[in-house]
């Protein structure tokens, strides 16, 4: 009797185990059925709107908000047939309206490495922005296009305000344009810098140096491209990593309603400071000066190359610690020097940036110097300002940078002779020493 009970008990246990295993098997088969949706274990991402796939061989990709295509076999050439331009490739949905509403448009330029700074620029600036982007070759151009699409899809202020243009060198033009839309649809909108690192990590230090030697960054070409696509009365010419202070757009609107210099030739200088990356962006001039008192902010390039901004006379600007709420002229620039490179707002009737100067050295300062010879007056505004993140220190200059500067120094001699004829004055009156006529604090962007 006992043995029979034991056999029944063992049989029951085997039956339970069999049924359990069978149920597990059936559950597994059900989850693999083609009509059953699979449960994703990946974190939820933010981009869900782009069609898949986006594969374009001769045209830029589009999104819901932009149907502007461009054929890489078209575009327009610069005056020397060295670079090809594509104007208004991705136009902000509110760019035209903002150009009508506001008196000033930001004109800026960048390569892929620093274009993420446009996020903060667009957050601070309420008006239109014209951005010229540079790249070369298939990989670089495709990555730049992907990142621009990412910015437009993830950041509404960029999608609304920014008008994107592109340029690439004739000698290294992209052949096949293919944006990885599958990757784009999986990207996290909360990590723009992480994506940038992913897109640029393929460049080793050696490869990056070779790239900069072979594909010299055409700063002045890009500045002209961005300037000429602004539609507002005034243009604020900046580098991509120069961030406007809060409320600057409206303050400039109000200022130009009261005073735009009339028939005179004026350029309105916006003081630029370096800011320690450990502190938050100052909300006003008083807070900026308190940071400067603590050594957490200082005039742009003060330690790297003081003549870059010296003529702005920051000491005089800092004397008034509590300005009124409206933008006004703090003081005129009275000690102009050739090496002066202010960030300024002016009508786009100023002389163009000379495109013979490519890469480092003699790019912005030659244009500002020609403005001076043409009779422009430089007026420093307050309480508005701009910020460049990081307290910069003097470092050894890489060989490719010094090489570019040497080439531009030779070109300057020809430029100087042309100014002598054009303005019937002697441009050498402001002495230029070969020892200090180098990169002038400019940075590749």
TrEMBL record:
Cofactor(s) the record lists: Mn(2+)
Catalysed transformations (reactions): 3-O-[beta-D-Xyl-(1->4)-Rib-ol-P-Rib-ol-P-3-beta-D-GalNAc-(1->3)-beta-D-GlcNAc-(1->4)-(O-6-P-alpha-D-Man)]-Thr-[protein] + UDP-alpha-D-glucuronate = 3-O-[beta-D-GlcA-(1->3)-beta-D-Xyl-(1->4)-Rib-ol-P-Rib-ol-P-3-beta-D-GalNAc-(1->3)-beta-D-GlcNAc-(1->4)-(O-6-P-alpha-D-Man)]-Thr-[protein] + UDP + H(+)
Principal location: Golgi
Keywords: Glycoprotein, Glycosyltransferase, Golgi apparatus, Manganese, Membrane, Metal-binding, Signal-anchor, Transferase, Transmembrane, Transmembrane helix
GO cellular component: Golgi membrane
Localization, UniProt: Golgi apparatus membrane
Pathway involvement of the protein, from the record: Protein modification; protein glycosylation
Record-linked Pfam families: Glyco_transf_49
Domain of life: Eukaryota
GO molecular function terms listed in the Swiss-Prot or TrEMBL record: glycosyltransferase activity; metal ion binding
The UniProt record lists the keyword Glycosyltransferase: yes
Membrane topology, as annotated: Single-pass type II membrane protein
Protein family (similarity comment): Belongs to the glycosyltransferase 49 family.
Protein name: Beta-1,4-glucuronyltransferase 1
């Amino acid at each position: 009797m006992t043995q029979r009970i034991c056999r029944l008990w063992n049989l029951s246990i085997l039956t339970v185990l069999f049924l359990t295993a069978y149920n597990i098997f059936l559950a597994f088969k059900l989850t693999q059925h083609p009509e059953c949706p699979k449960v994703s274990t990946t974190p939820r991402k933010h981009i869900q709107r782009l069609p898949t796939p986006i594969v374009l061989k001769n045209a830029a990709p589009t999104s819901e908000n932009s149907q502007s295509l461009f054929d890489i076999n078209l575009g327009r050439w610069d005056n020397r047939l060295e670079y090809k331009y594509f104007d208004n490739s991705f136009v902000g949905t509110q760019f035209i309206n903002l150009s009508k509403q506001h008196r000033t448009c930001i004109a800026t330029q960048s390569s892929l490495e620093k274009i993420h700074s446009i996020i903060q620029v667009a957050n601070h600036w309420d008006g239109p922005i014209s951005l010229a982007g540079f790249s070369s070759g298939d990989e670089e151009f495709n990555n730049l296009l992907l990142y621009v699409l990412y910015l437009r899809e993830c950041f509404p202020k960029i999608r609304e305000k920014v008008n994107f243009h592109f340029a690439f060198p004739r000698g290294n033009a992209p052949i096949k344009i293919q944006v990885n839309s599958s990757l784009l649809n999986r990207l996290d909108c909360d990590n723009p810098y992480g994506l940038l690192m992913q897109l640029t990590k393929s460049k080793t230090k050696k490869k990056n140096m070779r790239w900069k030697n072979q594909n010299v960054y055409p700063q002045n070409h890009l500045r002209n491209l961005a300037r000429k696509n602004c539609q507002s009365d005034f243009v604020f010419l900046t580098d991509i990593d120069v961030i406007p202070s809060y409320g600057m757009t409206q303050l400039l609107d109000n200022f130009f309603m009261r005073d735009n210099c009339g028939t005179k030739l004026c350029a309105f200088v916006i003081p630029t400071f370096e800011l320690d990356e450990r502190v938050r962006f100052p909300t006003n001039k008083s807070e900026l000066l308190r940071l400067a008192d603590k050594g957490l902010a200082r005039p742009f390039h003060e330690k790297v190359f003081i003549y870059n901004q010296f003529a702005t006379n920051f000491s005089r600007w800092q004397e008034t610690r509590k300005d009124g709420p409206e933008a006004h002229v703090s003081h005129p620039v009275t000690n102009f020097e050739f090496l002066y490179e202010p960030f300024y707002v002016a009508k786009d009737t100023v002389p163009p940036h000379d495109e013979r100067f490519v890469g480092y050295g003699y790019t912005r300062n030659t244009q500002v110097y020609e403005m001076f010879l043409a009779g422009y007056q430089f007026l420093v505004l307050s309480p508005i300002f701009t910020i460049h993140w990081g307290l910069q220190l003097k470092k050894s200059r890489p060989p490719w940078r010094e090489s570019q500067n040497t080439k531009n120094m030779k070109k300057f001699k020809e430029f100087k002779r042309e100014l002598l004829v054009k303005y019937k004055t002697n441009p050498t009156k402001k002495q230029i020493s070969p020892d200090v006529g180098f990169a002038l604090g400019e940075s590749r962007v």
